[in-house]
């Protein structure tokens, strides 16, 4: 087909990240970011990958409509504008697809309504994602708009993993269950891991550790997710940059009843003021490692808590899967922090897990093994690429439909 380009949009509440890809060879043509939309000092940073040119705009950008128009202008300057007949579709990241969306979906009015119905369980993300979709639809009404959901990969979880131990009727009434997030990354990375092992996804069991500022683990059996660490919202699970991850829910009652905090304050505390940041004042693993090297005990404790939680999830998902072919690290921390990888599997030789010091120290942006050659379970680093995955799923769907 001559329509071979896909524009990927990831709309946040005040940002718009985008990439234009040519799907004949999955090559990036342009990438960029609009930040602080509607604020005092908006900024658009655009890179034409083919020429290597980077341009910045600091003029007013009042809303997502203005942001997308500014992006369209930048793309047109590079000769890859949104009016090009080569554009096949626009793929949108949508954070919450609930149980309804198990696959990428071409957006129509019913799809918009359903994404809107999920706003109460994703109050920060879905409204921003919807704004991005509506803006793109207005700009190119003739073009297929495809929603790719962060939750979709996890809809294969069995009820035993997806349900909380509360009254199912109450849970269903308020749509309370474990949905999981980062699904696009877990799908991509688990598939790439199978490739790295020279096997098919159906043939391997993998524990994926997506460790970015947000962090989640998943247990993937034969290409299908059977458990993941994030839940109703991205707050559950691992220790993250600013999120607490797992804690006794009674901590919330205690903070309200004894600490006198409001629900909004507790929400902000647990989502934005906890995790590594709450523990030591820094959420960047580079800074934490630097402080540890200087003998900072607070940073060391934060690191230890982070690793302890990670190790517990590796053990838990090992048990969930029964047999593990690979443990794979991805995202900013997972791909770059060799100390985290080393500490996370330290002492797990009994489970067949170990890293080779030299391999683990190699810095490279390709998928690679970091375990010793004779290891029973592979330990791997596989760089994630959520935009490529969104583009691939979008292109596959549009290709199938037309
Ligand atoms: P997100 O997409 O969730 O914002 P990323 O996957 O981009 O996050 O990861 C960002 C995090 O990766 C940073 O906060 C930092 O902790 C970590 N990181 C990035 N580079 C390095 C590095 N060289 N060493 C250690 N940690 C790193």
TrEMBL record:
Its EC number is 2.7.2.1. Its cofactor is Mg(2+); Mn(2+). Mg(2+) binds at residues 10, 386. Pathway: Metabolic intermediate biosynthesis; acetyl-CoA biosynthesis; acetyl-CoA from acetate: step 1/2. GO terms for cellular component: cytoplasm. Homodimer. HAMAP family: Acetate_kinase. Belongs to the acetokinase family. This is Acetate kinase. It comes from Streptomyces brasiliensis. The gene is ackA.
